[in-house]
Amino acid sequence: MLTPLIDGFARMMDPWLLLMCFLGTFAGTLVGVLPGLGPSAAIAVLLPITYGVDPLIALVAMAGIYYGAMYGGTITSVLLNVPGESASVVTTYDGHPLAKQGKGGVALGLAAIGSFIAGTIGLILLSVLAIPLARMALVFGPPEYFAVTILAFVMVSSLARGNMVKSFLSLFLGLLLATVGQDIISGQARLTWGTMELIDGIGFIPAVVGLFGLSEIVYDIVHPQPEAKQQNIKLKIREILPSMADLKQTWAAMVRGGFLGFFLGILPGAGATIASFVSYGVEKQISKTPERFGQGALEGVAGPESANNAASSGAFVPLLALGIPGSATTAVLIGAFIILGIQPGPRLFTEHADVAWGLIASMYVGNLMLLAQNILLVPFFIWLFVISERTLPVIVASLCVIGVYSVDNSMWDIWLMIAFTVLGYGFRASGIPAAPLVIALVLGPDAENALRQSLVISMGSPTVFFERPISLALLVVAFLCLLYPLVRHRFKSVIETE
Amino acid sequence: MGNKAFPLNAEIVVSAFMVAFAAAQVYAANQLSLSADYTLGPGALPMIYSIGLLICSAAVLFDSVRQGGSDGVGEKNSMRGVLCILLLVLFVASIYVVGFLFSTILFCFLFCQFFSGLGLVKNIAFSVIWGAALYAAFHYLLEVPLEPGLLFS
């Protein structure tokens, strides 16, 4: 493990990669700071621009956006009570009261240090776990691969918050759209309605840019938030650096958040937001003074902020080792891998070891860069937050249109993107999650191939999935995940009745 | 114009559209072969997915209609959303005529005029600078052959 990681660090000494790592983490922090622009949208917008460049350069920048956004969301949550990311909502509970008490700088400092510690814990665990998992997955045949994708679909749809039927609506739509185009076995055109442009299927880039980039803008226009007032926030670096007493009080919460976040991050459908809420709950439960929570408890900031960062490292385990995305952002990242010619999954560490380890090494370096950025550049990010409020939507919208066109020089892609914008807005306004749709778009074709190949292997018998232990175990877990929301709902209603 | 509740609930509109879309896809999938030698035919999974989508959409539609009411978005704000989509459509349509550079400038100007509340002079300056910078970055730096438009081709 150490030798390829050291090679990865050696590769990261390339000035271009260091620059991309810096720009990616900087953009990620900015994305976290700015409400209305999530990491999935930012990566989706970047996707067409990086089309054709060295895959590692593009992936380092995109991954930087992903985990950088977890850092950035803290700044506005603490100082302005405006969470830039859903994973930072819980930070407002204690972060903003701390800011009101004049301890906003300490809260930010602890969040940055906690994020760094937990991010590093997550990366060490990622480095240790990814290879054995990928080795195990190398024995996967089509039935096992099909079972893994079924597990991912079920987990993303059932573990996510909200209405399960809506999640499945989104999943089925994604799976259906993934079948559009020429069937690879029979060569027949499917669901194209005679449109030649659909023969190659639904383009991934127009779909994700429309669903996440442009639809966010439309949603923010329909649901405008009160403009953040220019607040006179002057933070000195001295105020951001926490004292030894503060660190002593919070280090355990950071470490707990790191482990908790990492393992929750591995689960498809759970992710950074759930990790941050669970960490907050745990810290409150084990605290000797739970009444401080909500009033400005330092552990209430350090724990969740550590957890959401570690969760982003955890999400890379199934992404790199199995090629399974656990959230909308990782689904966009997997799409990016595929578009850049790299197939994530068990063979990634053998066929593209330089890319895999270079990317992991870049995350260690990026974490260090983020620690520095989030201590030194906080006033700058606040300034950017205030000045970009008016012009950001038009900048993103025009970038989406021109970026999507630039991939294939196709006007059709732009119209497709606008159709997905309307769909994305409709989904958001109706509370239908878009993540299952995107994950189905990414994994749907592979799942279909695996299913059809499995049936060919077994001469058409569906029992092939139950005769092989790994695929059986995965399907049983998928079935239990399917039951989980029903059980949870039943328990909830019994408790409420009592 | 008062900001009264918009009469259409987004959930009803989206789920009704999905029901219609799924029904159309069931029809399209039915035109394909559902089985092949020892495996599924090209139409099998589209059929299963369409039926799944149909059931889920119908369930959401039924639930939304039963609950009834508006989704709380004011008419004025809903119109802002419609206007935003129309601006995007106008932007893309104008690319065919005047090309990327001018359509981007026009889009930025109109978008800021309606939604950003920038002053006229600032708006013009921003639209021209941003539109030109974007065009230069993609056309010259990334060497993307951007549409010149009918008027300039």
UniProtKB/TrEMBL annotation, chain A:
Pfam families: TctA
Key words, A-Z: Membrane, Transmembrane, Transmembrane helix
Domain DUF112, chain residue ranges per copy: 18-439
Transmembrane segments: 16-37, 43-67, 106-131, 137-156, 168-189, 201-222, 258-282, 315-342, 363-385, 391-407, 414-443, 469-487
Name by which UniProt lists this protein: Tripartite tricarboxylate transporter permease
Origin organism lineage: Bacteria, Pseudomonadati, Pseudomonadota, Alphaproteobacteria, Hyphomicrobiales
From TrEMBL, chain B:
Superkingdom of the source species: Bacteria
Membrane-crossing segments per the record: 44-62, 83-112, 124-142
Domain DUF1468 span(s) in chain numbering: 13-146
Keyword set, alphabetical order: Membrane, Transmembrane, Transmembrane helix
Keyword Transferase: no
Protein name: Tripartite tricarboxylate transporter TctB family protein
Organism: Ancylobacter mangrovi
